[in-house]
Write a structure and sequence with these properties.
By secondary structure, the protein is α+β, with helices and mostly antiparallel strands. Helix content is 29%, strand content 31%. It starts with a helix and ends with a helix.
Length: 174
């Protein structure tokens, strides 16, 4: 009986060796994000984004505004017609300040965090920006995918262990 348990133990260790080794990374959990899609209400040349600042505010009037700090993945990044922000946690109120290719810096209205993965439409007007939240159902898309993958892996592992137990018991009867 001891030899069969030893074989089962060695077999389980062998299966663990087949699994790929992964480097453990800290701070890999999902982070709140904001996506800003820009549309232009300005006639004439198409403007592109030169740089941007996302101000975080605790007060509804944004009198305590402070730029979103760049800490690890936490930052605002902008491309020609799109900006996105990741943070460890956002304040309840925000204001965007974007410098465009025409050299003009436009500031947005004060807007609230719309959810964990917030999506906004930013209308570029001649003198300012209008930020409006978009309705979105994808509250935790990355977490949901990860949860499904973990459940599938757990189910597969359960089937494998069950198969090993059945084979071990059948060989015991013979």
């Amino acid at each position: 009986m001891i030899s069969k348990l030893t074989k089962l133990f060695l077999l389980s260790i062998f299966f663990q060796l087949l699994l790929p080794a992964r480097v453990a990374l800290a701070d890999t959990g999902p982070k709140p994000s904001m996506d800003f899609e820009f549309k232009q209400d300005v006639t004439g040349e198409q403007l592109t984004i030169a740089s941007g600042i996302l101000y975080e505010c605790e007060r509804p009037d944004c009198s305590d505004a402070a730029p979103l700090e760049e800490l690890g993945p936490q930052r605002l990044t902008c491309e020609a017609n799109h900006c996105s922000a990741f943070a460890y946690g956002f304040s309840p109120y925000h204001r965007l300040e974007i410098q465009f290719s025409d050299g003009q810096t436009r500031q947005s209205n004060i807007f609230e965090t719309a959810g964990f993965n917030s999506k906004y439409t930013v209308t570029v007007r001649p003198g300012d920006l209008l930020v409006e939240a978009q309705f979105s159902l994808d509250v935790f898309p990355r977490t949901g995918t990860l949860l499904i993958a973990c459940l599938c892996a757990l189910g597969g592992l359960g089937l494998l262990v069950g198969l090993i137990v059945v084979v071990a018991r059948r060989s015991n009867k013979n």
